[in-house]
Design brief:
The protein contains 11 helices and 10 strands. It has 282 residues and is an alpha/beta fold. 37% of the residues are buried.
């Protein structure tokens, strides 16, 4: 079986990540591997920064105390990480996943992404360090999307049953990859598929949409295709609201205006304002 790599932290998205992991694993037939990453800052101390202009004897005593505090802090961080993993594993098991794996990693989150042999990456929209007052996204999100060769599933704050999927389509390589994956993956089987192009309704775009329609139709879908002129972020957000979309699927790179949605400031705004999960394809 393939693997779903789900990153767990202490944010309010932790339960949602577990619930989405259950949904993805059940539909796509994936094993679930839960990972909590402890950054090097959490595991390292500030001993050298605090010794300052202190006499030699006092400095030695202070350094010894600081070293002990650093060790205790590292142990507490690891203990907390294991508790977070245990809680997520219990929730995933309650959802029907028999044997989720758990891993506590020390280092950078991107190292875990790069080393992972996974079919899909699952991460919360915002991490523990996000400024919820300003609704900032998690700082790792864009870096994970850039680093992962596999689809990245960005969980919304709360899980809700997924019935309607919108594929934001610009005809580029990554959006065609998203359509191809949707047509072949059991993750989308039986769901209502909408394909939306944001921009002018040209003959070239209609040809690309016909290609997308053919790929999905060959897999048994009856996709609803549309072209709506306007700024992509506004057009897509309006379609999500008006059409009752439960999951947004987008290519992480493209050759049109949609490219700026994913890697750039507009994407941050798009995912920030969208209250549904998003799947990103490179």
């Amino acid at each position: 079986m393939g693997k779903l790599l789900a990153f767990v932290d202490g944010s309010v998205y932790a339960d949602s990540v577990a619930d989405h992991a259950v949904w993805i694993a059940g539909r796509a037939g994936l094993d679930v591997d839960l990972v909590h990453v402890l950054g090097r800052r959490e595991m390292s101390g500030t001993t050298n920064n605090l010794s300052g202009n202190i006499t030699l004897g006092a400095r030695s005593a202070l350094l010894a105390e600081l070293s002990e505090l650093d060790e205790q802090r590292a142990k507490l961080a690891q203990a907390r990480g294991r508790l977070l993993l245990d809680g997520a594993a219990a929730r995933v098991r309650e959802g029907g996943v028999a044997e989720p794996g758990t891993r506590l990693r020390i280092g950078e989150l991107l190292d875990s992404v790069g080393e992972a042999d996974a079919e899909m990456i699952l991460i919360g929209k915002r991490g523990e360090g996000a400024d919820f007052a300003k609704l900032h996204l998690g700082s790792n999100l864009e870096r994970v999307v850039r680093a992962s060769p596999k689809p990245v599933f960005v969980a919304a704050r709360e899980f809700r049953d997924i019935k309607r999927v919108l594929i934001a389509f610009d005809g580029g390589t990554s959006s065609l990859k998203a359509v191809d994956h949707a047509s072949r993956s059991t993750l989308y089987a039986g769901l209502e598929i909408h394909v939306l192009s944001a921009g002018p309704d040209t003959s070239a775009m209609q040809q690309k949409l016909d290609t997308a329609r053919g790929m999905l139709a060959a897999a048994g879908f009856e996709p609803k295709l549309s072209v709506r002129d306007g700024q992509p972020d506004h057009v897509i957000a309006r379609a999500v609201e008006e059409d009752g979309i439960d999951l947004l699927v987008m290519g992480a790179y493209g050759h049109s205006r949609i490219r700026t949605l994913i890697i750039g400031s507009t994407t941050t705004e798009m995912i920030r304002s969208c209250k549904i999960p998003v799947v990103l394809y490179r």
